[in-house]
Amino acid sequence: MAFINQKKKEVQVKIVYYGPGRGGKTTNLEYIHRKFSERIKAEMVTIKTQGDRTLFFDFLPFNIGKIKGYDIKIQLYTVPGQVKYNATRALVLRGVDGIVFVADAMVVRKDKNISALDNLQENLNMFNTDIYKIPLVMQYNKMDLAKQGIPLLSYNTLEESLNCKFKAPAFKASALKGINVVQTMKKIIHMTLISLQKEFK
Amino acid sequence: MSYSLGQKQLDGIEDILKKELIDVGVQCVFLIDMAGNIIADLHEGEVVHDIYSLAALAAGNFGAVSAMAKIIGEDEFSLLFHKGKKENIHFSKVSQEFLLITIFGNLISLGFLRLKVTEVIDKIKHIL
Q1: What single DSSP character describes residue A124?
Q2: Predicted ipTM of the assembly
Q3: For residue A49, is pLDDT > 70?
Q4: Is residue A58 within 8 angstroms of chain B, CB to CB?
Q5: How many CB atoms lie within 10 A of CB B39?
Q6: Looking at the complex, does the CB of residue A73 fall below 8 Å from at least one CB of chain B?
């Protein structure tokens, strides 16, 4: 639910990184925070457990500058991936404008990805949001693990199991190494802003 | 579903927040939506808090407390207030979509603040 402040000439947009636990959602935001440390003055907010797992959400505000005279403020959020935190996960989705689904490319995580995607659809339905209509980008994370001999799902398998219905833009990525993290973010921001523009025309 | 507020509406809201809260000694007040967006924010003097993070946390906190209320069979909790040594924070629901957050020191009593916040909400509802 983006908000356009016509007095301040400012647009606030909410983008949520969603996906299974330990998939790399927080690592995406941490990389973005490091990479754009000169432009992001605020601290990243994290609410995590003692075991360093996301408990509620991570939050990173990112001012990307002006478009058509309006200051664009992107609010990046992650959700807790663990199954037991569904109540808080659903809360974070309230008013979401765009979603990055961070899938874990490890073979052993195939079913967890599918469950998390089903869960995303269910939780969006709670807010009367259609997963087929909201801007969505797929990120297949942990591709760097191939070098360590860890069995990974191929791009085609990931596309078939997660993206065949959505046909969303998809990136092979490594959040840890920063590969395609910025590209993923740029894509979802672009798609979300285009969608907002259409809504207000 | 996105939404937009114009200069006239925002001027009206800010005018009410200033007269009814900032001018009686509240340090900081902001109106947010339940997604965590900031609609209006006013401060006594300089901005000293990271209001975007505060708004995100406040929306999350309010959502979590509302969910707890439902689990124990309440519609909602009417008083949401955190007391600190020097600063206190008070949350008040304006409507299904909006929340008013006030940060105030110990010179203002909670009772007085609640009275003022109730008046403000009545007035703001006519604008939103």
Answers
A1: H
A2: 0.84
A3: yes
A4: no
A5: 25
A6: yes
Query: What is the C-alpha separation between B39 and A150, in angstroms, rounded?
Result: 48
Please report whether residue A36 resides in a domain.
yes
pLDDT of residue A55: 85
- Convert the pLDDT of each residue in A118-165 to its tens digit: 999 999 999 999 999 999 999 999 999 999 999 999 999 999 999 999
Q: What amino acid is encoded at A191 in this protein?
A: M
Q: Whose CA is closest to A23, among A86, A112, A96?
A: A112
Residue A169 counted as domain residue: yes
Distance from CA of B48 to the nearest CA of A (A): 12
Domain B28-127: give its CATH code.
3.30.450.30
Do strands A70-78 and A10-18 pair parallel, antiparallel, or not at all (unpaired)? parallel
Give the count of domains, chain A. 1
Q: Indicate the pTM of the whole model.
A: 0.92
Tokens 């069995």 belong to residue: A151
**Domain with A38 in it:** 11-200
Report domain extents, chain B: 28-127
User: Is position A2 within any domain?
Assistant: no
Q: What is the CATH number of the domain that holds A32?
A: 3.40.50.300
The distance of B105 to chain A (nearest Cα, Å) reads 24
Asked if residue A51 belongs to a domain, the reply is yes
Q: How many CB atoms lie within 10 A of CB A139?
A: 30
Given a contact cutoff of 8 angstroms between Cβ atoms, the answer to whether B103 and B125 are in contact is no
Cβ atoms of residues A61 and A45 within 8 Å = no
